[in-house]
Amino acid sequence: MDPSRSFMTNVKRLIVKVGTAVVTRADGRLAVGRLGALCEQLKELNSQGYEIVLVTSGAVGLGRQRLRYRKLVNSSLADLQNPQYELDGKACAAVGQSSLMALYDTLFSQLDVSSSQHLVTDNDFRNGSFRKQLSETVKSLLALKVIPIFNENDAVSTRRAPYEDSSGIFWDNDSLAGLLALELQADLLVLLSDVEGLYSGPPSDPNSKLIYTYIKEKHQGEITFGDKSRLGRGGMTAKVNAAVCAAYAGIPVVITSGYATDSIIKVLQGKQIGTLFHQDAHLWTSLKEVGAREMAVAARECSRRLQAMHSDDRRKILLDIADALEANESLITVENEADVAAAQDAGYEKSLVARLALKPGKIASLAKSIRVLAEMEEPIGHVLKKTELADGLILEKTSSPLGVLLIVFESRPDALVQIASLAIRSGNGLLLKGGKEAKRSNAILHKVITSAIPKNIGEKLIGLVASREDIPDLLKLDDVIDLVIPRGSNKLVSQIKESTKIPVLGHSDGICHVYVDKSAKVDMAKRIVVDAKTDYPAACNAMETLLVHKDLSSNGLLSELIMELQHEGVTLYGGPRASSLLNIPEAHSFHHEYNSMACTVEIVDDVQAAIDHIHQHGSSHTDCIVTENHEVAEIFLNGVDSAAVFHNASTRFCDGARFGLGAEVGISTSRIHARGPVGVEGLLTTRWVLRGSGQVVDGDKGVIYTHRDLAL
């Protein structure tokens, strides 16, 4: 539950207002599917003990559609040749209201829910006795679990243009809903719209962003509204006016989509959907809070200043960061130990706690890798190709930073250091979102690193995203953020891929295999298998499945491998063949990443069977063959379609630092842009630089193209 919406647990009575754009389709007909989904939600909430009052629009639009049809049926040919006159709105309301209520009655009856109809006008509420009686009647109905349905009685309203005249007690169904919320002392008002909530501008504008919490002092002067409702009176302007009035009178309000089938339920669960209006909202959020877009734009601006620096100055920033990490090691350790202790107390899995801990020597190791990175060849502006297009016209293809990176990672605070140093070396801006379990570690590491960035570049080069709720907004910024790299669980990576148009680089699982062939040396096989599993079981490059040639089950090597793993404390699970032969529990799935001292064992017929198994159950990460037969080794290396394939070497070597990349931002199993451990090169793109001496195209009349490759 979002902390700002924790009050939802105390909600019992709520007013739900559904607008014309939700009730009807674009052609004016009733949106029966949406109304059915709405009624099902209200039925569910009613059965849970919530008291619900529904305020509905749509009668005028529905009546207009019906009267137009009736007029068409009864028209003569001469009538059809004349322009149709505009139908009387009050007549439309009268006809549409009965049809609308008939449908609600039918839908609720099918759900075994009783409803009641209440048509009111502005003048009704000027009578104190009426208001008192209305309140008593509704309370009696709610006690009987009846859902009262309100609508303004437009058929007899005395105002000609109620949406233009706001002098009355209410002037549309949005303000009627707000008034009823106050009269009936509701705990919550939900206004259903045809968009997800209130945006900073028209929802169709790609630069508009959804506002999760409305703060009058901040947003009142910033927001620009689009057109009014497609069919109703006021659209979003009317909803905001009603929401502000109700919220500042003490009734919380949420504007959210009426198109979603579970939006009201999610609101009551405290999930961050729609826009919340609350009288205390200004106390929850600082008016100076930096939004997602502002953070991304600041990172881009800082990155451009970084790119313009001399190579030696960029190198010095990295060296200063390495020094700062070592100088603050004791402070970093204190914060990290606090995170580890909190994770243990919270009952987190051992594999997560292992990734969370910065073990002794880790800071020194990180500082060393940063210094190695600093001494590498300058990556920015490197000329990759040089071509003479024509005499005096030289074209260069050069390396260039991607722009702004968004990295979402779990558990491992050391990833923050590696990613930040790679971003600086490659000239990229960076936004980081770490897991809540590493909050203190990430905060101190971010502070130490950004304090070493010169003021003329700006510490906003590297932004630390504090709240998980900012991630959806960031993932919409495909015009500012150039690449997203998720580092974490399969669920995390999948969620991000499904939620953004921004290119995503990463891997979902690290299901790495070691295949021991029949010609493998015994001692070598044991060393590689044990190291691949036990050196760091929580790493994504640790062995998760051991494949063994069938002949090794008869010559004793399989037994030796099993005994060696069990001696190291590894829990073994078997495939169908291995489990019966070795008398070990059968694995529930071959596609499983343990991240702990456990692995799956299976017996295969030959190298081709091993390759087929890897392709069927693997994750295209890192796979290894142990064999003395070089022909078999080549079959494996050429046949396995993974980011990294090894011969007679542990899968644990698949690492940016071990590959000599200095550090890595992650390991990619994608096939576009970068694959395997992603270092500086994976964070670069290319651009073209053309140097001329006044040439013009002019239909190619005066240009003699040579297209000659030049030496670099």
TrEMBL record:
The GO biological-process annotations, alphabetized, read as: amino acid biosynthetic process
Q: What PANTHER family does the entry give? A: DELTA-1-PYRROLINE-5-CARBOXYLATE SYNTHASE (PTHR11063:SF27), GLUTAMATE SEMIALDEHYDE DEHYDROGENASE (PTHR11063)
Indicate whether Amino-acid biosynthesis appears among the record's keywords: yes
Entry superkingdom: Eukaryota
Q: Does the keyword ATP-binding apply?
A: yes
- Its protein name is Delta-1-pyrroline-5-carboxylate synthase
EC number(s) reported in the record? 2.7.2.11, 1.2.1.41
